[in-house]
Design goal:
Arc Repressor Mutant, subunit A, single chain, about 180 residues, 2 domains, alpha+beta, three-stranded antiparallel sheet
């Protein structure tokens, strides 16, 4: 029973790691140290997910590197389900309705890397933001999720200094 519970938690961690941000890659020992779990438990889950073709593996410099299989028929469903589980979709849906001329919204840092934490960092790219309304939306969203929300607003030219690496940022909304 305990083994089943541990692997279920491990499976969710692994799925979140790869399916929230599809540009994420990792190898066994990296995942083991990140999750604080044994390499054997992680290996079992990676093997199950690879056998189900949900993740793919490549050998890079004698290491087996894993990533999400974006061609899997259930990829989009799992991706959206995990965004809902973490609460990112709810935050973004509320933000885009009334805050100004939003061009793009990115989640950066831990959440973008599939590691839900205590703070969701959001970069809003656009202009003429209604920050009073934005602050109210953030407070409302925080009442429904288990983390705090921190945001910055930038114009399109300034976004590159905050959204520099695909593995550390996740585009969650785009007007285009």
């Amino acid at each position: 029973m305990l083994d089943s519970l541990i692997t279920s938690k491990t499976r969710i961690k692994v799925l979140m790691k790869f399916f929230i941000n599809t540009d994420t890659t990792a190898y066994l020992r990296n995942l083991s140290s990140e999750f604080g779990e044994s390499t054997n438990g992680i290996r079992l889950e990676l093997n199950r997910l690879e056998e189900a073709k949900l993740i793919e593996a490549k050998t890079v410099q004698n290491k087996k590197v894993y990533c999400a299989n974006t061609n899997h028929p259930y990829f989009c469903d799992i991706h959206h389900l995990l965004l809902k589980y973490v609460g990112i979709d709810q935050v973004v849906d509320e933000l885009i309705k009334h805050i100004g001329h939003l061009e793009k919204a990115y989640v950066i840092n831990d959440f973008a890397q599939g590691k839900p934490g205590k703070v969701l960092d959001v970069v809003l790219v656009g202009s003429e933001f209604n920050k009073t309304y934005l602050n109210k939306l953030v407070q409302k969203a925080e009442a429904n999720v288990s983390f705090k929300i921190r945001y910055i607003t930038v114009d399109a030219d300034g976004s590159s200094q905050y959204v520099e690496d695909k593995t550390k940022s996740l585009l969650v909304w785009s007007a285009v």
